[in-house]
Design brief:
heterodimer; A: 903 residues; mainly alpha; 37 helices; B: 123 residues; 5 helices; 5 strands; globular
Chain lengths: 903, 123
């Protein structure tokens, strides 16, 4: 039932559908309504999953168990480095990068040499990979036809060649349909995303069919596999292969960006940086889904075809066919076709761009033939070159396929390709993050890495295929043992991929770093290094203008654009650019540095940065800026940047300082207000006694007839008030000294008990006069503290005289207690006076706030005794407070810390 | 008729000197030592003039003055504020709430007597 014609028709129909999707994508792009959403972008990344994945990972799983997963873990980890990928995209947009070769060449001074090298490495590394796709396609067609009893030779041609031709034509239609040779292909991206969906659905359909249709679900499959000794091994992680796992994860992580097709999709075709964020989770999810059934399919195949010798790479087709599910097999075939065509289309388009821009153009631009056609439109020529390049690359793939056949060189090529493109990593990452990396360093690193790769991986694979003598693998080159290709310098015990990765990266990075450090970049390199590494900060407008000096003619540049972009597209871009600069007609634009830069960028989008540089230089009279001059300009730009950053920091500091100042000012104003209040209060306190003194003395002075009693009484008041005034003035001065910290202290060992007894003795008379009982509970010796004895006496006098003032005459009682409480000495002066309210307990320690307010007692106090006492106690590190309730007497307590013990 | 003067101050010595001074000038004198007592004495003693200290416990001189001015029965009562705080804002505040005169402590006894007599029309 599955005739060759039917399969051909089905394939053709499917390719036609793809083409329609691509046309739709292109049409929408032309209309300015891009269909490239974040989801489409993320799905298009799945071009990573080729037919090698579609058919091959089942095959790998039959021998390597879970190790096939590494190829998917690496990309997942790489995508997590969003900032690296976004930086790559930002640089590529700014520089109109067309390919990975262009990226590396542009970074290192728009070097044609580097662009060519990268292109050659990519072609050598990737053509066998394309051959692998052809092989997978051929094998899948053979499986379908074998099943219906037909042979692989069809109409006298072998089917693989037909497939190759169709794929080449298809790629040409896809990638070079447009006459304008720009770097982006939205239709292609849309088609690739569509294919990704198809291959996922196809693979999962087969997986579900086998797992649940042929077997009793995942549990059943795994149980049956575990029961078989050989298969049970596949389900376990082999820790001895951890090194291999690491190497595979690193390689595939690098491949997801550095394979030419991946760079094309991830970087060049990206329309919006934010799409990367979606891809970070959507793409790994895709990988997870497409891998869920790999192991079940492998186990199912091994169980079902036990001992029948069926190729495990074809299980995806043979399992459904074994149950007669032909339409499912056809769906699987379409899925495999999707995987292969997607890979071949994008890979050949990426490679053809590189070959055209970086190998053919540099040669053409120097040729006499092109010189003779100065004024011809070359955009058609560009397209032509690319079409031929695509055809040649696919043809090379086919030739490699024919030559290699079933040889090892084809089967292992996937990872060999990965290892080849991994050589781009040092020059790429170094170029993005290390300004000192130079062209010479990149050339040295790439060459060294490539040679090691060639010697330790590609050539041994040829040897294994029997194409060349395997002597250099087994005995070492020239019979030198430590040159054995896969045991270099005696390094054994590693698998070939890890071995190659280790030595090639060592050589690559070593040469790149060492040569970069010992060489000096030229002017173009230095300025490109700045543009790449500082892409997020580079001030294009100001720096570009100064990095180009010379004379250019608008006409010559426009002619150049028209030649390479085609007249229509050139005019379109010119108009767009003019509008961007606020000019109606591009003919009014000055041929200044900015215009030259625009023209070069547009050209770079078509023919690559290296060729674009050469072309612009050919029509403009450029003044060569010396390296030092360029470095000066860049340095200046860096300085301006540093300066403005500094300025920003300074401004922030200034703002902080201003607000601090404002706060300080606020505090000062508060202090000023308090001082004002204080002075006003002091004035009041001074004027009050003065009032009595003046009034009474005036009356005594003016009226000699005042009787003796009154005369005595008045003079007594005057004397008292004068004393009060003196006391007040002394205490104000004392307070001021304490507050300003200018008080003099004579600190020494003070026996508080002794001080208390002395003070009580001194005030005995005062207490006796009022009939107030005074007793104490004081240790015979000590406690001793470090303090000023006069000041402590002052505090005690103050507390005792306050107490005697407020207790009732005759029945009053004052009790002094000295004791130790933890690390503090505690002194209490307890009275049986009227007591204080909670509020009063606080305010009596404020200046000029007196308790009692009784007419009789008031003149005794100055209102400064307690505040002064508190200052003194706090100076010694203690506390002074009162515990009291109205009607229950008051207990004034102060503590002074004991000296820290000597232990 | 003898004019009546109420002396309000919480400083006993000032009260003593003012009482002696005013009595010597022939006024009938009563004394209060805080704001609340002052208001009570105004009611019972019905003075013609009050010598009113500002800084007092319970009710300040300003509060007493305001209360007096709010009472229409006391419309004819003369109020002389006495204060030890000499700031101009205090003087302005006193006059604004209806005091008839403002005397700063320490005062000249002669001037105070002249002022009080002038206000009472007994000079």
């Amino acid at each position: 039932m599955l005739s060759g014609w039917f399969i051909a028709l089905l394939s053709a129909a499917y390719l036609g559908l793809l083409f329609a999707v691509a046309r739709f994508g292109d049409a929408r792009a032309d209309a300015g309504k891009s269909i490239i959403s974040a989801n489409v972008y993320a799905l298009s990344l799945a071009v990573y999953c080729t037919s090698w994945t579609f058919y091959g990972s089942v095959g790998r799983a039959t021998s390597g168990g879970l190790s096939f997963l590494t190829i998917y873990l690496g990309p997942t980890l790489m995508l997590l480095c969003v900032s690296v990928i976004v930086k790559m995209i930002r640089i590529s947009k700014a520089q109109r990068i067309t390919s990975i070769a262009d990226f590396i060449a542009s970074r290192y001074g728009k070097s044609q040499l580097l662009a060519g090298m990268v292109t050659i490495i990519a072609v050598i590394g990737v053509v066998p990979y394309i051959a692998l796709q052809l092989k997978a396609m051929a094998a899948s067609v053979d499986v379908l036809l074998d099943h219906s009893g037909r042979s692989g030779i069809w109409l006298g041609l072998d089917s693989t060649f037909l497939i190759a031709v169709i794929l080449a034509l298809f790629s040409i239609l896809f990638g070079t349909r447009h006459l304008d040779a720009t770097e982006r292909h939205e239709g292609m991206v849309a088609a690739v995303a569509f294919e990704s969906v198809v291959k996922l659905i196809a693979f999962m359909a087969v997986g579900l069919f086998v797992t649940y249709g042929m077997f009793g679900g995942l549990g059943d499959l795994f149980e049956r596999a575990a029961a078989t000794a050989d298969l049970g091994r596949l389900l376990q992680l082999d820790s001895s292969r951890a090194g291999t796992w690491t190497a595979l994860i690193v390689l595939s992580g690098l491949a997801i960006v550095f394979l030419p097709r991946q760079f094309q999709i991830v970087v060049v075709e990206n329309v919006d940086e934010s799409h990367v964020k979606r891809a970070v989770w959507l793409f790994p999810l895709y990988l997870l889904l497409i891998n869920i059934f790999v192991l079940p399919l492998a186990l199912g195949g091994l169980l079902h075809f036990d001992g029948q010798g069926v190729n495990s790479d074809t299980f995806v087709l043979t399992l459904p066919l074994a149950r007669g599910a032909e339409s499912l097999a056809l769906l699987a075939f379409i899925g495999g076709l999707s995987a292969a065509t997607g890979m071949v289309i994008v890979e050949t388009i990426a490679l053809s761009t590189m070959v055209c821009n970086d190998l053919v153009m540099p040669w053409l631009l120097r040729s006499a033939w092109l010189q003779a056609r100065q004024h011809r439109d070359l955009s058609g020529l560009l397209i032509g070159i690319r079409r031929v390049a695509i055809a040649v690359i696919v043809l090379l793939g086919y030739i490699y396929f024919r030559a290699a056949g079933e040889a090892y060189a084809l089967v292992g090529i996937g990872l060999i390709s990965f290892a080849a493109v991994a050589q781009f990593a040092p020059a790429m990452f170094g170029g993005m993050y290390w300004k000192q990396g130079t062209r010479a360093g990149a050339v040295a690193g790439l060459s060294a890495g490539f040679v090691v790769w060639l010697y330790t991986l590609l050539l041994p694979s040829f040897a294994k295929s029997g194409w060349i003598s395997s002597g250099f693998v087994e005995q070492g080159l020239f019979g030198i043992p430590w040159l054995k290709a896969q045991m270099l310098f005696g390094l054994g015990g590693m698998d070939e991929i890890s071995h190659c990765l280790w030595w090639s990266m060592l050589a690559n990075i070593g040469c790149y770093v060492f040569v970069s450090l010992s060489s000096r970049p030229d002017a173009v390199e230095a300025s490109q290094a700045e543009r790449f590494v500082d892409v997020f900060r580079f001030d294009r407008r100001s720096a570009e203008a100064r990095l180009w000096r010379g004379k250019a003619s608008l006409d010559a540049l426009v002619r150049l654009l028209e030649r390479f972009l085609g007249v229509g597209r050139a005019q379109q871009q010119l108009a767009l650019y003019a509008r961007g600069r606020g000019v109606d007609d591009w003919r009014q634009l000055p041929a200044d540095a900015e215009f030259v830069h625009f023209a070069e960028a547009e050209l770079a989008g078509a023919i690559g940065s290296a060729s674009a540089r050469v072309m612009v230089a050919s029509v403009a009279e450029e003044e060569d800026l010396g390296l030092d001059e360029v470095l000066d300009i860049l340095d200046e730009a860096t300085q301006v940047r540093a300066y403005s950053r500094e300025l920003e920091v300074k401004q922030q500091a200034l703002e902080a300082a201003t607000s601090e100042l404002r706060e300080a000012n606020e505090r000062l104003r508060e202090v000023d207000r308090m001082k004002d209040d204080f002075i006003s209060t002091v004035t009041h306190e001074l004027r009050t006694p003065l009032t009595s003194i003046r009034a009474l003395s005036e009356m005594l002075h003016e009226d000699p007839r005042i009787d003796l009693t009154n005369r005595r009484r008045f003079l007594g008041i005057i004397v008292n008030e004068t004393e009060r005034l003196t006391r007040l003035i002394n205490q104000i001065l004392d307070m001021a000294k304490l507050e300003s910290g200018r008080a003099e202290w004579t600190t020494g060992d003070v026996d508080i008990g002794a001080i208390a007894r002395e003070t009580m003795g001194a005030l005995e008379q005062l207490f006796r006069e009022k009939g107030v009982a005074l007793d104490g509970d004081i240790p015979a010796v000590g406690p001793v503290v470090l303090a000023d004895s006069d000041r402590l006496t002052q505090v005690l006098i103050n507390l005792l005289s306050n107490a005697v003032k407020f207790v009732p005459a005759q029945s009053g009682r004052v009790h002094v207690r000295v004791g130790v409480d933890g690390s503090m000495v505690r002194v209490e002066v307890r009275d049986n006076g009227p007591g204080l309210t909670d509020e009063e307990c606080d305010v009596i320690f404020e200046k000029f706030r007196q308790g009692g307010n009784t007419l009789t007692d008031k003149p005794q106090g100055t209102g400064l005794g307690l505040p002064i006492s508190r200052q003194i106690i706090e100076y010694f590190g203690g506390k002074l407070w009162v515990e009291s309730h109205p009607g229950e007497g008051a207990n004034f307590i102060f503590t002074v810390p004991l000296p820290a013990s000597e232990e | 008729m003898t004019k009546k003067i109420l002396i309000v101050d919480d400083e006993p010595n000032i009260v003593i000197s003012l009482e002696f001074l005013m009595k010597k000038e022939g006024f009938e004198v009563a004394v209060a030592v805080d704001g609340e007592e002052a208001l009570a004495k105004v009611d019972s003693f019905r003075p013609d003039l009050v010598l009113l200290d500002v800084m007092m416990p319970k009710k300040s001189g300003f509060e007493v003055c305001e209360a007096l001015r709010a009472d229409p029965e006391m419309a004819g009562l003369l109020v002389v504020m006495l204060t030890a705080k000499g700031r101009e804002t205090e003087v302005a505040k006193g006059l604004a709430i209806g005091a008839d005169a403002y005397v700063t402590k320490p005062f000249s006894t002669k001037d105070l007597v002249v002022k009080v007599k002038g206000m009472l029309g007994t000079a």
